[in-house]
Amino acid sequence: MWPAMASSDGLPETARAPSALWPGVSLAGTVVIADQLTKWLALAQLAPYQPVAVAPGLNVTLAFNPGAAFSFLAASGGWQRWLLSGLALAISAYLVYWLAGVSRRDRLQMLGLAGVLGGAIGNLIDRLYLGAVVDFIDVYYGEWHWPAFNLADSAITLGVIAILLSVLRDSRSCRK
Question: Where is the active site (predicted)?
Answer without folding.
Answer: 135, 153
